[in-house]
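Protein in question quoted in full.
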Amino acid sequence: MTAITKKLNKRERYKAQMIPYDYYPQIQTLDFNAMSEADVFYLQDFGIFNNPLNEEEFTLRLRLSGGRISIQQLLSLARIAQDSALEIILTARAGIQLHGLNSENVLHVFHQVNAIGITTWQTFGDNVRTIVTDAYEGVSQTCEIETYPLIQEMERAILKIPRLVGMLPRRISTGISGNRANISSFFANDIYFALAQKEGVFGFNVYMGGKNTEIARNADIFLLPTEVVSFFSAFIEAFNKYGSRSTRSQIRLFYLLEAIGMETFKTYIMDEYQNVWQTAGALIIEKREVSRYETLRDGSFVFCYESNFGCVTPDELIDIATFAQNNNAQVRLTTQQNIVILGLREPKTPFDNLSKSATVIVCAGAHYCPFSFWDLKNEALLLPLDRIQKHRINVGVSGCAKGCGRHQHGDIGLIGLRTSSFGEVDKAARIYVGAQHSDGTSVAREFFTMVPLNHIAGVVNMLIDEYEASTLEGFEDFSIQVLNHFSEEFCSLWILAKLQTGSTKMLSRLQIRYADNENSRFDLEKEILEEHFEGESFLFLLDEDFKDAIRTLSKQLWTSGKANENIAPKLQKLMTSKRYWEGDTAQK
């Protein structure tokens, strides 16, 4: 082993021994009951992975670029899942995962899925993951550039190419949108082609370096639609050539840009691109909420079928596909883990699903993922969904810090955790609030480090109370015009103090001057607390910061035994459910 090889992380050492493309034929004769560590690594490049906590259980990840799937494919997929008793999960990349496979049927189902024209290649591992776009692209009234043809060309440039399959330093997530209406925020992607305009011509501004906890940054590049594919190929080649291959946790594109700078990386792309690009144009984004029924450009209608936080049954898929087929409609998957039926003659369907999940993204959870601390598909039901739906509040829920629920790219975000800080080890959440997600200005800020499960609804309800009192049009506007003028610590302490005292005072109604200087901000915020919570004991803890007061109030509230009254019945029902105890691998 050379000195250079020694510096490579384990996955890179496997790649040096055999490239994943050359490994592929071995899948046909592999004993899935006796896999080596190398087998587990290579299989991921073809969409097959197993649960580290249960090596006999496998998952298959499907690549549905742009969320596109035909009616016949949807029907076939549903029947495959029925025949093998599989569970179906819709992902936040507008894809599908099949869970519940075992060593006896995983290869058979793998061949079945690929045979119906749905590839599983490069859906995991160090690859360009499924390219996402707006579910209404090409058909909505606000669409300026149809992006699906570009996605198809981009996919052809990277799919099943021997030197690229599984060979990138780290995964690359890609988003592209030609829609004026920002229905889905794509600033969490490593590279995002955002609708822009320059000198009266529509094209795309390029943003790079996003991830689940970071916003992609403006690269100051404007591309015409005809330039996107060649630029994308050059971008992939540059990252593949210059990306780090050492510590796995520090090799996403974000870290490369931090290390060498955007301008240096752009020179690497230019070497591969061998063309000239323009500087960025004007970003074209109109924030708009989408209702259950929308009128499309041709006068037809689209219906959004809300999944159960990403969970759907084979019977549901069959019903959706059959209805769409009978009405000459299309189906597409969304990055919000839902299904849209497009091209309806009238805004009417037989579906009355009321999961209230249209604006809530939830990661797989402990029932499906060994890294998650929560069985999120169940515990998302503890959120105040009626109010979230009413105000179209964007909520992201992740089961761990990996952030698959994009918890920092929405109005309110939660990371499921476990803590013993307030008594016995129990589920809790870290809560983030206030991303300026529509135009990619900032991620959400951490308001609460640890809130026990039975108090989360109370905290979220308090945040919604504050929003409603502001009378602003959307929660994002409330974050920009109210919350983001205050420090995270102040907002946290304000909510805690209100929960403790029962105060009905609202931030949006305070007549104050905002401090531009960080040094004076603390003094101003301290004055606000002293004025509105006069006589409360926590005020004596306000010295140089709010941390001691936050810790003290948190401990008093979370150990008081006073669970939120609205959540107690739901919590009791959840805790006694069979699936809760059987499905949450972390409990075991």
In short: Residues 170 and 252 are 6 Å apart (CA to CA). The chain is about 35% helix and 20% strand. The radius of gyration is 24 Å. Residues 453-470 form the longest helix (18 residues).
